Amino acid sequence: RPPPPPDAAERRAAKPVLVYKVDQLPKYDLPLYLRARENLTLENVVVVPPREGSTFEVPAGHFFRICSVEGPQVGDLNLWNKNDMKERFYSSKTRQFHATHLTTGDRLWSNMPYIRPMATITHDTLGWYGWDEDGAGVHDVIGSRCDPHTHHVLSGTNYDKCCHSNLTRSLAKLGIEGAAEHVHDVFNVFMCTGYTHDTKQYFMKASPVRPGDFLEMFAEIDLLGSLSTCPGGDCSAEHSSDTSKCYPLRVEIYKPADASLEGWTSPS
User: Fold this and answer.
1) Most buried among 28, 80, 172, 224, using CB within 10 Å?
2) What is the C-alpha separation between 160 and 224, in angstroms, rounded?
């Protein structure tokens, strides 16, 4: 490093300013979501096997839960507008509007030029975790997804059960052409991550998720989702291999009582 200038301390003392003023964003309507959650009817269940990807659909005005059922497991989530796949989840804008890790009250935003809430997190059984002494949190929108290309660059070997590949195959099973082009940076559900204090490098650690935990979201628009069970399992050691213990994840789709959504409209 070059030597610091005489006024280095003064330059470093500049006060941080939030990049985005989010006061104009739609407010989290807690009473509405609580009312809607009071009487839910389970309409569909999709079980994603270990080291695979599966798609699911959620109509606007329905809830969906990603559930831990057998053991600690991280899931990589992609979302699209079911009626127009050009609109999809935008992790970086979501991160800028909310934080590096999401929980109840945060929303998953779509890409430009749409930029509207696709889903709202309405319940998080891991909401107690917060930030630990390493600076880690749960449910991140930092990481992109494990993929075979990066794996080959770093190891010189081929691996085809990365989350990118799992998500791609799940779309291909629907007959979607150019499936890989639709796969995008993910919402890392249950993943525990942060930046190291000294070098600010991205790290992961064992997920605190346990069977019975779930992350619940409300579909603000008609959604097509795809979830990959990460080959790293709980991501306590690695994320692109067949050595980690992996478990399935369960996606549950719920319909609220008809009258419970009075006052809610899908964002335009």
Assistant:
1) 80
2) 23
How far, in Å, CA of 74 to CA of 244, rounded?
Answer: 12
Enter the pTM of the model. 0.96
- In the numeric block, the tokens 């989010």 are attached to 22
Give CA separation, 127 vs 92, 105, 109, 220, in Å: 21, 11, 20, 21
Comparing C-alpha atoms, which of 185, 4, 182 is closest to residue 86? 182
Q: pLDDT tens for residues 105-155?
A: 999 999 999 999 999 999 999 999 999 999 999 999 999 999 999 999 999
